């Protein structure tokens, strides 16, 4: 293989036998080398064949700006995830996860702990991905001696969820439409414009995305809610509960899906916060 482009001492661009551009990674593989030189294949420890030119270009840019060790961590986590889930992930995760891990490690070194506002929901609704996130923390700690907090396991799980969704464009389109439909019901019911830049709206929309993922991929969980709690929520958030009842009817009629009591509680509380912030 011949060096087509040199990104840095650890990353080269070359071509395979079919003329397809590939990214080659290895410690010191590009040291004192130039375009047109023969690559020392004994130094290669990872080859990336990225089908999407856009993803490939972004990955090359990222590899030029983060340590090779952080990219290797991401690759190990992605390979573990694909084995665990028994499916390939969207190529974009090589960019999103590598960038996130690099940033997370830097934050911890600087003593900055970023809380994951959706950690509880991720744990409950994406248990398998969260378990992978915890395993990822083990992998990172083994290689760096840095233990990231469980909040980061949640962020990693979120990247994995996205990488599964992005593989199936019709599903993504359905989720997007579903979110817009629910937001429209809320807007009309309360006669408000939702402040989508607010944290409460971000949380609500993210929760809707999680909910829609289960709806479109037939992933359900058991409903173990205390009915007394449901009654308390109904009394405390009467108008919001009425709004979610409309959402429940809409979802049953259009999608043939029955919203659980747990979900009704979460959606009601989210809507209460969204309405509060939108009326300020």
Word description of this protein:
This protein is an alpha+beta fold and 280 residues long. The protein has 3 domains: 49 residues, CAT RNA-binding domain (Transcription Regulation, Sacy, Chain A, Roll); 114 residues, Orthogonal Bundle (PTS-regulatory domain, PRD); 110 residues, PRD domain (PTS-regulatory domain, PRD, Orthogonal Bundle). The chain is built from 11 helices and 4 strands, in the order E-E-E-E-H-H-H-H-H-H-H-H-H-H-H. The chain has a 4-stranded antiparallel beta sheet with strand order 1-2-3-4, covered by helices on one side. It is elongated and about 70 Å long. The mean pLDDT is 86.
Summarize this structure briefly:
With 280 residues, this protein is of the alpha+beta class.
Q: Sum up the overall morphology in one term.
A: elongated
CATH homology group of the largest domain: PRD domain
Low-confidence stretches: none
Gyration radius, to the nearest Å?
Answer: 23 Å
Number of strands: 4
Order of helices and strands: EEEEHHHHHHHHHHH
- Which fold name corresponds to the CATH topology of the largest domain? PTS-regulatory domain, PRD
Q: Which structural class should the secondary elements be placed in? A: alpha+beta
Rounded mean pLDDT score: 86
Strand proportion: 5-15%
The CATH architecture name of the largest domain reads Orthogonal Bundle
Helix content: 55-70%
Summarize the main sheet: 4 strands, antiparallel
The number of distinct helices, counting runs of at least 4 residues, comes to 11
Terminal CA distance: 62 Å
Which CATH class of the largest domain?
Mainly Alpha
